[in-house]
Amino acid sequence: MRVVNKVSADEAQMAELLAPGPEQPIYMVNLLKFKKKAVYEDERETNLTGAEAYGLYTDRVSQLLPKFGGALLYSANVTGLRLGEVEDLWDKVAIAMYPSRRAMLDMMRSDEMTEIRVHRAAGLEGQLNIETSNPNGAWLDPR
After folding, report:
1. What is the helix (H) or strand (E) element at residue 77, kind and residue range?
2. CA 101/CA 43 separation, integer angstroms
3. CA-to-CA distance for 112 and 57, rounded, in angstroms?
4. Domains in the chain and their CATH numbers?
5. DSSP 5-22
6. Per-residue pLDDT tens for 10-30?
7. What's the pLDDT at 118?
8. Residue 29 contacts residue 130 (beta carbons within 8 Å)
9. 66-79 in b/e burial notation, b at 16+ Cβ within 10 A?
């Protein structure tokens, strides 16, 4: 298995994303790798780390998700790898819920997202986005 972190979808992935998707909730698993220092495309000077720049994005996305019926369900730092092997471990894991792929696309195309996307690009070295959906899926009770 080869693992390649990316900041943007390639042409084939974008076509899949734009195709009709599940008309039920989807849960996006995000495996995030940050730049050591944030680098903004407009070349602004900053002392922010990549994680701090991405945090600015996350703060705004957390507020934006409910407007599209979604929610940030989980976000935590990666503390280690206990099984398997990867060349470089991700820094953070986040799970966001959207009521449908269509709702996620609507949010991605929104003016608010366009405004905050700059912080995502400045902070991310790369990531994996894994879409999950299951009409019978459920959170398991840990008790």
Report:
1. strand 71-77
2. 33
3. 11
4. 11-132 (3.30.70.100)
5. -BSS--HHHHHHHHS---
6. 787 777 777 777 678 999 999
7. 96
8. yes
9. eebebebeeeeeee
